[in-house]
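TASK: fixed-backbone design
INPUT:
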């Protein structure tokens, strides 16, 4: 995804400041650096404004002024809007998709009858994953699904294909099997020198329940994240969770084998959870969503723990670790804060993101050191 330069007042050309400042000062006689909303609306009707701004920018300014919680507009806000300075979420939503300026207006309730299924889906994604109303509207108008989400569908098809292959090979299918212990993909502590196993164990699953949960969650959460933030960022979070799952198992559950994409799935869940936590006041039913995610994830982790301590006793097969769920979630919380662009980040939030990323890298470094020198 492309990056945009962040424009500050110091970066603005002097000509631009000289051009708009006198016009703004006409409605700011006391030089407070801000004007009331009513005066701002009069400013938007000024002939010079009408003549020099495109319809989209005018509409954005009018939408900002229509916010019932806004009582005034500062000069810095005015300049930011005039120069198209947008939030990170907006830039990510339309990066590489910039088109000619289009007339933009808020979506009206009656418009729903004229929307296609794709448009309704895009608007739902915007509503769930973006916090600013203008960003939601602009993303919904500009998103074209070209290129479409590719990483999550590709990984999902690979996982389903591998599961079908090993089911046919073993001639069995149960809610917790088959477990292809001889596969070159499975993570085994006795073959940890084969580095690819720390990643490719995600292709295997222990039964159709395990597969169904992971596939459903990564589609429902991963594809919308990929639509908003792009495949590279989502892939980075997903693989960070996969690596954290295998390294965590090698440190905390040294006798366990490991299969499944739960590390990556929980990384996506946790990254989305972090986004909800940062923006829950702007999101519809934010607390309810947090509770639902917690209940579903707890049930899955509980099943994994039960499977860990009963499978060996019943079938004589090696135990399957559950640590990947927890380590993947931790990876999603740390890497996700740094990789996924948050909406209107403040300075202390930027520091938090870098500290979280450093924590993840430190844990990975420790786990690698453990595997090389401890065993």
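OUTPUT:
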């Amino acid at each position: 995804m492309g990056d945009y330069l962040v424009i500050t007042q110091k970066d603005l050309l002097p000509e631009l400041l000289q051009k708009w400042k006198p016009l703004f000062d006409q409605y700011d006689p006391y030089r407070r650096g801000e004007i009331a909303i009513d005066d701002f609306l009069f400013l938007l009707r000024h002939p010079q404004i009408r003549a020099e701004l495109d319809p989209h920018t005018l509409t954005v300014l009018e939408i900002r002024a229509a916010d019932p919680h806004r009582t005034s507009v500062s000069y810095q806000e005015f300049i930011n809007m005039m120069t198209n300075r947008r939030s990170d979420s907006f830039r990510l939503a339309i990066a590489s998709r910039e088109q000619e300026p289009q007339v933009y207006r808020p979506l009206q309730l009656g418009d729903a009858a004229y929307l296609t299924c794709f448009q309704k889906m895009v608007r739902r994604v915007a509503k769930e994953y973006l916090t600013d109303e203008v960003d939601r509207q602009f993303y919904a108008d500009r998103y074209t699904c070209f290129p479409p989400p590719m990483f999550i569908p590709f990984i999902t098809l690979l996982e389903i294909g591998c599961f079908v292959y090993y089911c046919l090979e073993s001639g069995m299918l149960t809610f917790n099997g088959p477990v292809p212990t001889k596969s070159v993909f499975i993570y085994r502590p006795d073959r940890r020198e084969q580095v690819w196993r720390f990643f490719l164990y995600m292709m295997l699953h222990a039964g159709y329940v395990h597969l169904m949960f992971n596939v459903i969650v990564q589609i429902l959460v991963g594809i919308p994240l990929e639509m908003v933030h792009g495949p590279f960022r989502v892939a980075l979070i997903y693989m960070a969770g996969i690596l954290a799952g295998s390294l965590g198992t090698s440190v905390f559950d040294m006798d366990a084998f490991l299969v499944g994409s739960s590390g990556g799935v929980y990384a996506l869940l946790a990254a989305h959870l972090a986004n909800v936590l940062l923006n829950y006041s702007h999101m519809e039913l934010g607390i309810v969503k947090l509770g639902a995610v917690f209940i579903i994830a707890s049930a899955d982790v509980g099943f994994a723990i039960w499977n860990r301590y009963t499978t060996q006793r019943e079938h004589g097969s090696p135990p399957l670790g559950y640590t990947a769920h927890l380590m993947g979630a931790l990876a999603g919380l740390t890497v996700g804060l740094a990789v996924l662009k948050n909406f209107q980040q403040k300075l202390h939030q930027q520091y938090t993101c870098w500290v979280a990323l450093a924590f993840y890298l430190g844990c990975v470094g420790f786990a690698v050191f453990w595997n090389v020198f401890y065993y």
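COMMENT: The chain has two domains: 9-85, 151-373.
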